[in-house]
Amino acid sequence: xxDLKWIRENPSAFDEGLARLGVEPQxxxxxxxxxKRRSQIQILQDAQTRRNAASKEIGRAxxxxxxxxxxxxxxxxxxxxxxxxxxxxxxxxxxAALKAVLSELPNLPLDDVPVGADESDNLExxxxxxxxxxxxxxxxxxxxxEALGLMDFELAAKISGARFVVLKGAxxxxxxxxxxxxxxxxxxxxGYQEVVPPALVRDDALFGTGQLPKFAEDLFAxxxxxxxxxxxxxxxxxxxxxxxxxxxxxPLRFTAWTPCFRSEAGAAxxxxxxxxxxxxxxxxxxxxxxxPETSLEEHDRMTACAEEVLKRLELPYRVxxxxxxxxxxxxxxxxxxxxxxxxxxxxxxxxSCSVCGDFQARRMNARYRPAxxxxxxxxxxxxxxxxxxxxxxxxxxxxxxxxxxSVSVPPALRPYLGGLDKIAAH
Length: 426
Fold this sequence. Notes:
The protein is α+β, with helices and mostly antiparallel strands and 426 residues long. It is built from 12 helices and 18 strands. The chain folds into 2 domains: 4-103, Orthogonal Bundle (Helix Hairpins), CATH 1.10.287.40; 119-423, Bira Bifunctional Protein, Domain 2 (BirA Bifunctional Protein, domain 2, 2-Layer Sandwich). Helix content is 41%, strand content 20%. Helix 5 packs across helix 12 (389-399) and helix 7 (169-188) crosses helix 12.
């Protein structure tokens, strides 16, 4: 949610920020709605002030024996009561109309975010690692997994339909090992607190992080007013909703390994084979809550934490800054980490780390009390994948594949697999 006071003071800057996202100017419409709301509030306040004054005058008129004046004042108070009741309804309607427009508008990009239409305009900022030179034609992950007899899409389709998978045996254990490895790294070395959050949330939680109302079609809803989480960002960020924190508590850093559920409504025809884009997948999420002064530094730190997972697994990757046309609704700036997949001969997204400023905090009413100031301020929120577990499994299969169809286990994961150093068909 945007700061209306800032929009009133900087309407041109607001529209310029939206223009970088390809969104039409909105300040004139917002300020008109805001003026209607403020005018209605003023009418209400004037009516309430007059009602209070008239109520006192009734007592004086009766004390002076002026029954006619008293009755006239009683009639005026009754009329004012109707005006106030009607005015409160109109104020609620004006407020709802303003919030409806505001809730649909994306966050404004930071000045250093590249302007572009889509992912083709993303800006690469660094690479790490060299893709392994293979002396055989590399296979894609689903070819490897199916040949091992441990990755079954047909069986999943019988149970649930398209865009699901059943992992068995060593691959099921590998996914669990990857998640445990990531959690141990983030909690043991990077100071994140592990959380086991709910996987079902209410409307307000998804509104807080920006998925609702605009992106309902991307979500799965239950029949009793719950939503399945699309990412642990939602419950983790909402841990501080409607809270007032002390500055000394910040930064707060949370991590969680959860299932994630997405309808992939706009993904028709994309990545239809394999595990790249599924309705259900697991992810280790990172969420930070900071002061405004430290959020950009925290963004770089979070990205580095996610990168370290790939470094420990010795998986080549690159980091890009998303263009305005590829960035998410709530983000001010996003770093995507893309891992090398030899089966596709391409870098593919494995993590997005975003700084959101106070955009989500305003929607959640999450504030903190500065150490040297009595006035409350909104926290800044950040979120990132540390990492998408299924996509990391894909990267391990493709980068560690052998010509005989087996897969070597990265050294960092072997302690989590009881010393197993190779996954082979039996």
